[in-house]
Amino acid sequence: MSPALPSFDEAAVLIDGYATRLGQLRPPVERVSLDLAAGRVLAQPLRADQDQPPFDRSTRDGYACRATEASAHSPLQIIGATRAGDAPAGPVPPGAAWEIMTGAPVPAGADAVVMLEHVQVSRGKAFETRVQLLPPRKLKPGENVVAKGAQARMGDELLAVGTAIRPAQIALAAACGYSQLEVFVRPRVAILATGDELVPVETLPAPGQIRNSNAPMLAAMVAAAGGEPWVLPTVADDDESLDRALAQAADADLLILSGGVSAGKFDLVEPALARMGAQFHLTGVRIQPGKPLVFCELPVRNARTAKNENGTKCFGLPGNPVSSAVTFLLFAAPVLAALAGRHKFAPRYALARLSVDAEKQAKPGLTRFLPAFCTFSGAPGQIPEVALVSSQGSGDLAALARSNCFLVVPERSSILEAGATVRILLT
Ligand code: AMP
Ligand code: MG
After folding, report:
1. Residue closest by Cα to atom 15 of ligand 1
2. Which ligand sits nearest to residue 237's alpha carbon?
């Protein structure tokens, strides 16, 4: 192993810094309707178009009144009712109460709502309807009321540019009256699988051949990370084919190659990138799997987008499926997120308790990422439990597909006995 190779931590810092710088450039913007906005990135700040809630809102079915007047001893006369959707009513005079439903505006004069379940309703002498607290209940001013503007003031910025749009953000946009949103144009990500042994998924592999599973996996990972996948035909392991394919793929904002980056006789990707004038940022990282990973930038070809002013970003991922998956998550995803205009994106880690011994997995000098399964039971006082998935190595796709995270084995020897607290990379 070359001692010159950066450690995992060093490579992660390099990628993080690179992605942060890249994130300062703004991709082009387009408008999409709200129902197509999931998975996109906000290119405009989302603002409240009115106070939220727009009126003092009851959070309960019950009776609105002056909190100081609510008691178990002197009943309040019920003089009106407001349903959700009714305009604000009132005023409620002293000594009176007002029936109210969840989501309805609290009438003027009232400052609290007592829950239906906490009162007794009765008839008075003049057959008026009266309400009184059931002991030992009490009512505090403001109870069961969200004041107008308590969640947001009209004009407040509720979501910043660069926010990833998920269901909650869509709901908020709808609540604020946005039927369309300005989002960043998705970066176009070319996916180029290399290898003489590869056949398309529809083809029955001849002896010695395998199906190209990396391209569809990487396309799915690209889409999940906010890119627009552009899967190119498989490339044979010869210089001419590689040069041709690279010239075509360099039109993309980001190029993801799989295979051909190890030290074998037919691992021709790095020299092909060098022939194109690539500027290399990483040509290996002390991780396992994924050590031969390449990260570089190609000279400007087709500066379609502002992001590409420094040339197409390019990753050469090792071809083993687990290696491709891990290196994409660790290194390509943050760069892709930055190209997509996302702010504050980083691989997600968590702590978990190792449920089965993994002591034999440590390899000095290498940070390892091993397919594992974590159970997030949420049991009180318990951190998640993680165990390795049994695997035949970095070509074992079935093991990868049975996993839901990677166990991180640090490069310096550490305790990996059952019961130890360990770091996991979430997928
Ligand atoms: P390489 O990185 O080219 O040396 O490939 C390493 C291993 O990954 C070999 O066993 C390849 O057959 C396998 N491999 C390479 N590319 C793919 C791919 N696109 N899909 C599935 N397996 C692949
Ligand atoms: Mg190969």
Report:
1. 319
2. 2
Q: Which ligand is nearest to the CA of 212?
A: 1
| Cis ω before 364 (30° cut-off from 0) | no
Q: How many CB atoms lie within 10 A of CB 257?
A: 31
Q: Report the C-alpha gap between 383 and 63 in whole angstroms.
A: 43
pLDDT in tens, 55-70: 999 999 999 999 999 9
Which amino acid would we find at residue 117?
Answer: E
Centroid of ligand 1 to alpha carbon of 38 (angstroms): 33
Residue with CA at minimum distance from ligand 1 atom 5 = 319
User: Closest Cα to atom 17, ligand 1: which residue?
Assistant: 319
State pTM to two decimals.
Answer: 0.91
Dihedral through CA 223, CA 228, CA 233, CA 234, nearest 10?
A: -40
Which strand (E) or helix (H) includes residue 230?
A: strand 228-231
The mean pLDDT value of the chain amounts to 94
pLDDT > 50? residue 306:
no
**Residue 228, C-beta contacts closer than 8 angstroms, at least 6 positions apart:** 186, 187, 188, 189, 222
* Torsion (CA) 234, 240, 246, 247 in degrees, nearest 10: -130
Q: What is the pLDDT of residues 384-422, one digit of tens each?
A: 999 999 999 999 999 999 999 999 999 987 789 999 999
Taking the CA of residue 194 as reference, the ligand 1 atom at the shortest distance is 16
Pocket test for ligand 1, best of 288, 320, 392 (most atoms within 8 A of CB): 320
Query: Can you tell me the distance from the alpha carbon of 328 to that of 234, in angstroms, rounded to the nearest whole number?
Result: 19
Can you tell me the distance from the alpha carbon of 414 to that of 419, in angstroms, rounded to the nearest whole number? 13
Is the Cα dihedral 205, 320, 347, 186 positive or negative?
Answer: negative
